[in-house]
Amino acid sequence: MEVVCDGKRLVAGSGQGELLSSQVGLSFWGGVDPLTGTVIDQHHPLRNRSLAGRVLAIPSGRGSCSGSGVLLELILNGHAPAAIVICEREEILTLGALVAEVVFEQSIPVLRVKQEVFADIGKYQYARVAGSRLHLSNEPLEADWQPETARPASDEDVGVRLDVIDEAFLSGQQGKAAQIAMRLLLRMAAIQEAESLMDVSQVHIDGCIYTGPASLRFAQMLVGLGARVRVPTTLNAISVDKRGWRAQGIAEDLGVPASALADAYVAMGAQPSFTCAPYLLDSAPQFGEQIGWAESNAVVYANSVIGARTMKYPDYLDICMALTGRAPLAGCHLDAGRQATVALEVEMPTGADDSFWPLLGYSCGSVCGNDIPLILGLEKSAAGPDELKAFGAAFATVAAAPMFHIAGVTPEANEQRPERRVRVGLGEMRRAWDELNTAATIEVGLVSFGNPHFSFSECARLAALVQERIKSADVEMIVTCGRAVHEAARQAGYVEVAEAFGVRFVTDTCWCMLGEPVIPLAVRTLMTNSGKYAHYAPGLVGRGVRFGSMIACIDAACSGKANEHEPAWLL
Questions:
Q1: pLDDT beyond 70 at 154
Q2: How confident is the model at residue 146 (pLDDT cuts 50, 70, 90)?
Q3: Pairing mode, if any, of strands 8-11 and 110-112?
Q4: How do residues 176-227 score in pLDDT, each as one tens digit?
Q5: CATH of domain 437-570
Q6: CATH T-level fold of 164-336
């Protein structure tokens, strides 16, 4: 028996196939192989399944803003899902499909259905998306069906009010590149139900990460069309250390295109900042400033800790905002889009070390999903920028929400009055500990720091902790950080102290992009204090992970072994 349901068409088209469904959102970056379409997120229910040619049903995307780039690669290389079905607000994957449609005239349909429809979707084995309709069945659907011809939304019918400058961009008066950017912005604004666009003061671009040939093709196309950014624009960490990848033994087939991609964005006028922590730069925004940032941890930090205003923008929409200085007036740009919808009651255990913050962030993100949380119980924690950076990065890895509030800590928390309350206790954090500690052995071959990029204060703390210790010759220790932080730490003497211990510093890139040979082939287990990297590493680099505090990581670097059990405060 075939069931037919109506939905909201986000991207036009038709597709059918075996149905792969999950009630858990999926980050395509770090969660799906951009070459094959196989799910590599080892924490996800669909792990090791191929999405190619199948109808994928997930509540929404989550995690990294680079998911749009991965989906674009899959569409252009023929390994994309036949269609995507969601039930919550979703912009990252949708934007990847829109870029494929608008720029490359290839795409897949994206359909949003009601929650009650999605709740029952796991009962079926096959699905077809045709325009705004979803067909579900437990029998294979007819193979010779005629796809419906669904007209893509045009620039004229998106329902967004245009200012004079928007009209100028759309008509091509400001050049072809800006015209393409405005077309994509209008399509996304319509999906976000924005009535108009607005000015942004700065942009942070995550699309400079090399996901494959499509990412370079898109950027070089814009350069060829004379694209120039109109507002101050910073660049995220790229896929290689631009100044040192050859010395590190990185293969030419990655180093050359990844560097060329960075060069393309610099040619458009972006600053070669190459950091996933732009909030550490002198150009960091102020409270209330309207900005257009991509990169999940950066977005969450900007909104939550600084109180600047940005949506969680997907890759490729970031450069569209930079080329126009415009963004959809929706979501976190508005007061209403920044309101907490759930209160999470937590408790800081006595004696908790710095691993508490990423563990709590991971636990809270897993609970809240799309809901913006108000976190209660940390009023006396004295959380500083480094603790909030660690919390936010882990939170953003598993949540779709673009921000959080912490009572007594973050600047807008006192304005929040959510009615629903959920307890997040030690039990949830112990489960997070077990999920992030995936290695079967306590033998450690590499210690990883700097995901997100290390701050100046973290460099100072690391130097103080390793100054009188001796690292095992069998353990590598690598720190990733931005160029600006590295130079400041070098001038302060922290880099020299850390290097004397045996630390290697890598700039421009970050752990979500690093692989062999920077990670030695012989290393089977790595240790990190990053909840974000502990989540992604098993799928990205195929290594087991041990997670712990900074001191626990340094101890492991000296002994070659991680602690076998969780810390006492977690018991």
A1: no
A2: low
A3: antiparallel
A4: 999 999 999 999 999 999 999 999 999 999 999 999 999 999 999 999 999 9
A5: 3.30.499.10
A6: Aconitase; domain 3 (3.30.499)
Instruction: Write the CA distances from 102 to 99, 107, 295, integer angstroms.
Output: 5, 9, 23
What is the CB neighbour count within 10 angstroms for residue 560?
15
Q: Residue 231: pLDDT band by 50, 70, 90 thresholds? A: very high
**What are 9's strand-pairing partners?**
111
pLDDT for 248-275, tens place per residue? 999 999 999 999 999 999 999 999 999 9
DSSP state of 195: S
pLDDT by residue (tens digit) across 215-224? Answer: 999 999 999 9
The backbone region for 472, taken as left when phi is positive above 0, alpha when psi lies in -120 to 50, beta otherwise, is beta
DSSP states of 2-26: -EEEE-EEEE--EEEEEEEE-SS-B
Given a cut of 90, whether residue 467 has pLDDT beyond it is yes
Q: How many Cβ atoms are within 10 Å of 367's Cβ, its own excluded?
A: 17
386-405 exposure pattern, b = at least 16 Cβ within 10 A, e = fewer: bbbbbbbbbbbbbbbbbbbb
Q: Is 64 a catalytic residue?
A: yes
- Distance in angstroms (rounded) separating the CA atoms of residues 329 and 290: 10
Return the DSSP state at 424.
Answer: -
Catalytic one among 21, 27, 60, 64? 64
d(CA 389, CA 255): 29
Q: Are 372 and 402 in contact (CB under 8 A)?
A: yes
What count of Cα atoms within 13 Å lies in the side-chain half-sphere of residue 367?
28
| Domain residue spans of the chain | 3-137, 164-336, 352-429, 437-570
Enter the pTM of the model: 0.93
CA–CA separation, 454 vs 476, rounded Å? 17
Please tell me the CATH superfamily of domain 3-137, with its number: Phosphohistidine domain (3.50.30.10)
- C-beta of residue 471 within 8 angstroms of C-beta of residue 502: yes
Strand ranges (E), 334-411 = 342-345, 373-376, 405-406
One fold for 3-137 and 164-336: no
Q: Report helix, strand or coil for 328.
A: strand
